[in-house]
Amino acid sequence: MHADDETRILPSQADDGVVRRLRAAGCVFAEDEARLLRAQADGDLLDALVTRRVAGEPLEHVLGWAELAGVRVVVAPGVFVPRRRTTLMVEEATRLARAATAPRPVVVDLCCGTGAVGLVVALRTGDVELHAVDVDPAAVRCAQDNLARVGGRARTGDLTAGLPHELRGRVDVVVANVPYVPTDEVRLLPPESRLHEPVTAVDGGPDGLGLVRRVLSEAASWLARPGHVLVEVAAHQVPDAEQAARAADLVPRTVRDDDLDAVVLVASAR
Ligand SMILES: C[S@@+](CC[C@H](N)C(=O)[O-])C[C@H]1O[C@@H](n2cnc3c(N)ncnc32)[C@H](O)[C@@H]1O
């Protein structure tokens, strides 16, 4: 056997115990997870990470990072983990930000969590002025870390109350992946979300659209002309979300991606 072959075999042998523990705990992608955990730590620290994962913590919380659209972001325990379906919002927001007439488009990420959505839009668009707001200080700390690379600012606040006044009427694109799960359905979420993400990150009120309505009505007066607000919703919520956009004097259209199981309402200023 060639020496290179030997070194190639060693990591998977060392992985075996980790893979076995992960598989026994029900991790479907045990090999992949083991590889990621081993890249993060070894020895006692690796053992501690595996123990947390086996106890049911989301992999991203254990690793301390998550990915959205290929971009890695810091995510602390207790902070919402960005979902793959939100790639649709990123793509649509990037198109709109690139089409903005301002030399340096203003992008606002409301309910920013880790700040992943605004960050990816900023990285893909180029030079943007990025502001992010979340009500949860732990999320804002992650967003501050994540947005530093694009010079973005993250603040603690309740939707637009967290924005600096001078942005009023100047915002080209608002991305707002707000909580939109109806209260009665929160108990049906997978345990990784129910037990490890705050209920304020997922519960959208009786019909799930409480925050969507607030974002649409509040954001309208912050928009430039043209200017757009993007919110993610479930397919069955589209008629009511569109109605909420019209009530805020915005013009709604809906973008869908069945592969991502994603629906985004784009509400544009007249
Ligand atoms: C579904 S998570 C989305 C996070 C992030 N936008 C993403 O896609 O990864 C919703 C976020 O909204 C925040 N949030 C809930 N109510 C809020 C409010 N009134 N004002 C600001 N943020 C709020 C939660 O703390 C949570 O981080």
Report on the architecture of this protein.
- The protein contains ten helices and nine strands.
- Helix 5 (87-99) crosses helix 6 (116-125).
- It has helices at 3-24, 30-40, 43-54, 59-63, 87-99, 116-125, 137-147, 191-196, 210-219, 238-247, and strands spanning 65-68, 71-74, 106-110, 129-134, 153-156, 171-176, 223-233, 250-257, 262-269.
- The strands form two sheets. It has a seven-stranded mixed β-sheet, sandwiched between helices. Strands 1-2 form a two-stranded antiparallel sheet.
- The chain starts with a helix and ends with a strand.
- A hairpin with a 2-residue loop joins strand 1 (65-68) and strand 2 (71-74).
- It is of the alpha/beta class and 270 residues long.
- It has two domains: 3-55, no CATH class; 84-269, Rossmann fold (3-Layer(aba) Sandwich), CATH 3.40.50.150.
- The protein is 41% helix and 21% strand.
- The structure holds S-adenosylmethionine.
- S-adenosylmethionine (SAM) is lined by residues 80, 82, 86, 111-114, 116-117, 133-136, 139, 158-159, 177-179, 200-201, 211.
- It catalyses: L-glutaminyl-[peptide chain release factor] + S-adenosyl-L-methionine = N(5)-methyl-L-glutaminyl-[peptide chain release factor] + S-adenosyl-L-homocysteine + H(+).
- GO terms for molecular function: peptide chain release factor N(5)-glutamine methyltransferase activity.
- Keywords: Methyltransferase, S-adenosyl-L-methionine, Transferase.
